[in-house]
Design a protein that fits this description.
The complex is a heterodimer of chains A (360) and B (275). Chain A has 360 residues and is of the alpha+beta class. Chain A is built from 9 helices and 21 strands. Chain A is elongated, with a radius of gyration of 24 Å. In chain A, 41% of the residues are buried. Chain B contains 12 helices and 2 strands, in the order ααββαααααααααα. The chains are: A alpha+beta (360), B mainly alpha (275). Bound molecules: adenosine-5'-triphosphate (ATP) and magnesium ion (MG).
Chain lengths: 360, 275
């Protein structure tokens, strides 16, 4: 039972502002992902929650208790680092037991808890191993067990799988999600892999330059990005720039009636929201490439003004390079200065398809 | 290794040979001469090989009371100086490596500066002060002067060792509930351990052989092994006394250095895996 509340958190290093007015509520048992490009302040936020950095201003509460000024060892948080940070002069058992010993538990109790933790992460019987005798994935599991054994109120994970290969990463994130659900532990997870965030999170926080762009459930974030940045960051997105004049978005290939003020705007179209039809018109768009992903085909289309779009088509469709085509959109969003102006169209049907392919 | 052999297989490596010969002349020949003298009873010019080998001078040297006394004084001095040096320098080195405080760089520079100063001049100045404090010719006087000499090594190497310790490891320990002191004791020190152990060992060995300070401050009451050796060589024409003492002094330091090499070697080995 733990809630995390972050209020107007701010952190400056000398000249740079790493985190700028960041607020977030994490509910009991929730898994929230911090997602953003490199240098957007994800680690800094996590480290402030863990107590390794002092906020310049703002407040952090865990279950109502203000922990902003507490040192790391007094906080009910458990952190898993990207570099696992296992103590190489101790074996696996002692790595996990270290925190328990500090709490002066009895020997039997420690043994029992360590065994339990190893069992939880699927490493029963590995206690006597040295840390360098483990694979990268196993090391990360030990690091996870080391944090979990102390039953922290908040679990903090900073890109724990970043140094692992793709397959292992996918397996581990399922395992971590599974453990997290079973224990019902409130978790904050940092990643810059959007597929990781979409696969694991209850809610995703998209960060940019230390500021929060949007906080939403993965499906909402994907279907209804509130800013142009989020639209481009999550999944694949085609952008077309043009002017809105007299209630009409005037792009040579896409004209659209929208009730917004005149001015420049950016039209955002998902590849799966676009449809292709053969066309004989002399000023139609041309296919430049078709890439077969097995489950779908991604067709690159070049418009007359040189803009390139990606269109997702069914796997049985055959599109040749150089073929002229006409485009139709079933859903769109319109942005101006990174803000959502308008959106419309039917919701995209291929829900299954998007998380597996559109993001690959 | 194999690659370097094959790459030189075409041409003979004259440079390498020249270096090897130079090293042998500079290092091995004097050692060999000292060794030979230590086991020689008669060796007169112009013979290349001693006329008579024997252990007579070992007997004579080892039966002298002043040799044993000097040995124990040297051991006591080195142990005391090394312990004090570690006690003072290790926390300071940690502070240098981990903490940011005003004047940090200036302080560090001053350490180096004091060691760039001509040593004998510094020693004489200190001796003058010690004279007023009645520290001349006392055990603690020598301890103090030698302590000053060890500071740089005992700060510099441990600073590097502490800086090499992964910060995340320390943070992970804080995270599971260890206070700063506990982290230092249970994580930082063991991680930096092999290198620091080598620094301690080197400090011990170099203190054991330190002569200038020991002679200037300690004479005549406190006579260490090296000082005694110099006396032997200066006052008596018998080369063998000096040679025997040299060999006696050489053996433990050689063992210590081999040991240090092994410890450092395995340390970096394990770290390479753990990284
Ligand atoms: N100790 C520090 N001193 C100075 N600047 C720092 C420090 N730590 C982080 N920063 C700066 O703060 C900003 C945010 O860094 P942070 O590590 O939080 O990014 P991140 O989102 O975790 O990036 P990545 O995905 O690369 O890990 C960066 O501009 C970084 O240079
Ligand atoms: Mg980071």
């Amino acid at each position: 039972m733990a809630r995390l509340k972050i209020e107007s958190l701010r952190k400056s290093f000398a000249a740079t502002t790493a985190v700028d007015d960041f607020s977030l509520d994490v509910g009991d048992g929730e898994l929230v992902c911090l997602l953003g490009p490199s240098g957007s302040g994800k680690s800094t936020i996590l480290r402030m929650i863990g107590g390794f950095e002092q906020p310049t201003s703002g407040m952090i509460r865990i279950d109502g208790q203000d922990v902003t000024r507490l040192s790391p060892e007094r906080r009910p948080t458990g952190m898993v680092f990207q570099s696992h940070a296992l103590w190489s002069h101790m074996n696996v058992f002692n790595n996990i037991a270290f925190g328990l010993k500090l709490r002066s538990l009895s020997r039997g109790e420690i043994q029992r808890k360590v065994d339990q933790a190893l069992e939880l992460v699927g490493l029963a019987g590995y206690g006597h191993r040295q840390t360098f005798q483990l694979s990268g994935g196993q090391q990360q599991r030990v690091a996870l067990a080391r944090s979990l054994v102390l039953e922290p109120k908040i679990l903090l994970l900073d890109e724990p799988f970043a140094s692992l290969d793709q397959h292992l990463r996918e397996r581990l994130r399922e395992e971590v999600r599974d453990i997290q659900q079973r224990l019902g532990i409130t978790t904050l997870f940092v990643t810059h892999g959007q597929d990781e965030a979409l696969a694991m999170a209850d809610r995703i926080v998209v960060l940019r330059n230390g500021q929060c762009e949007q906080v939403d459930a993965p499906d909402v974030l994907y279907r209804n990005p509130q800013t142009e940045f989020v639209a481009g960051f999550i999944g694949q997105m085609n952008f077309l720039s043009a002017n809105v004049e007299g209630g009409r978005f005037r792009h040579p290939d896409f004209t659209l009636d929208v009730e917004v003020q005149d001015g420049p705007a950016v039209l955002a179209l998902r590849p799966e929201a676009l449809r292709l039809e053969p066309s004989d018109s002399p000023d139609a768009a041309g296919v430049t490439r078709a890439t077969d992903f097995g489950s779908h085909i991604m067709v690159d289309v070049e418009l007359r003004d040189g803009a390139r779009l990606k269109v997702m088509t069914a796997p049985d469709a055959r599109w040749q390079k150089g073929q002229t085509v006409r485009l139709a959109a079933s859903a769109f969003a319109l942005y101006r200065q990174n803000r959502l102006l308008a959106r419309g169209g039917l919701p995209v049907e291929t829900v299954e398809g998007r998380s597996r392919h559109a993001l690959a | 290794m194999i690659r370097s052999y094959s790459s030189t297989s075409g041409r003979f490596d004259w440079m390498g040979l020249a270096f090897a010969i130079l090293l042998v002349i500079v290092i091995a020949v004097p050692l060999l001469v000292v060794f030979t003298w230590a086991f020689t009873e008669v060796w007169r010019y112009p013979s290349v090989i001693p006329q008579k080998f024997g252990l007579r001078f070992w007997d004579q040297t080892l039966s002298r009371a002043d040799v044993w006394e000097a040995l124990f004084i040297s051991l006591r001095l080195s142990a005391t100086v090394t312990a004090l040096s570690a006690l003072i320098c290790l926390p300071a080195a940690y502070a240098f490596a981990r903490m940011k405080f005003p004047g940090r760089d200036l302080f560090f520079l001053s350490f180096l500066a004091s060691h760039a100063f001509p040593k004998f001049g510094l020693l004489v100045a200190i001796a003058a002060i010690f004279l007023q404090l009645n520290l001349i010719a006392t055990f603690w006087g020598v301890v103090l002067i030698q302590l000053v000499g060890t500071l740089m090594l005992m700060i510099w190497i441990p600073v590097a060792a502490f800086q090499a310790v992964d910060r995340r490891m320390e943070e992970a320990a804080r995270d599971v509930g260890a206070g700063p002191l506990r982290v230092f004791w249970s994580i930082t020190l063991p991680q930096a351990g092999p290198t620091i152990f080598a620094a301690v060992l080197l400090t011990f060995v170099s203190t054991f052989y330190e002569t200038e300070g020991a002679w200037l401050i300690g004479a005549p009451q406190i006579r260490t092994m090296p000082v005694l050796m110099i006396n032997f060589i200066n006052n008596q024409v018998v080369v063998q006394y000096g040679a025997v003492l040299s060999v006696i002094l050489w053996v433990p330091s050689f063992i210590a250095l081999i040991f240090a090499r092994r410890v450092i070697g395995t340390g970096s080995f394990a770290k390479g895996f753990g990284a």
